[in-house]
Amino acid sequence: MKIVQQILIVGCGGFLGSIARYVLALFSTSLFKSAPYPLGTTVVNMIGCLIIGLLAGFTEHNHPFSPSVRLFLFIGLLGGFTTFSSFGLETFTLLKNKHLWLASINAFGQLFVGLLAVALGYWLMQLTQSR
Question: Which of 54, 89, 61 minimizes the C-alpha distance to 75?
Fold first, then answer.
């Protein structure tokens, strides 16, 4: 399969996953309009993690999907739905393969470094806006 085909397959899945994320987040948020907690994002992330876990468990001993379908589902659809599901699967795989230290670095590193990166980006924009 050519790289252009792979990119289009991932892009189509990402398009659908992003739409599903937006619709589900809107629906979840509409149920609890006054809640200050980011419920929509939480619901999307947990559902994405459940789905990728189900698919990973199913495909570990069975191989029902072609490489194109795997690209569409795992990277495209679920990646567009939530990259948190990929993060969850990668961390779980490290744990399952007894790489506790790497799983810990991955989990805590992405969480804390990600938060620091958001803060840094925000701070840099505030700095440039004040000039």
Answer: 89
Smallest Cα–Cα separation from 104: which of 90, 118, 84?
Answer: 90
- pTM of the predicted model, to two decimals? 0.76
Mean residue pLDDT of the chain comes to 90
The CA–CA distances, whole Å, from 36 to 33, 82, 119, 126 equal 8, 21, 20, 24
User: What pLDDT score was predicted for residue 80?
Assistant: 93
121 and 64 in a common domain:
no
Tokens 């191989």 — which residue? Answer: 63
Quick one: pLDDT band at residue 124, thresholds 50, 70, 90? Answer: confident
Enumerate residues 6+ apart whose C-beta is below 8 A from 58. Answer: 64
19 and 59 housed in the same domain: yes
Tell me the residue range of the domain where 110 lies: 100-131
Instruction: Tell me, yes or no, whether 40 and 92 share the same domain.
Output: yes
Q: Give the number of residues written for the chain.
A: 131
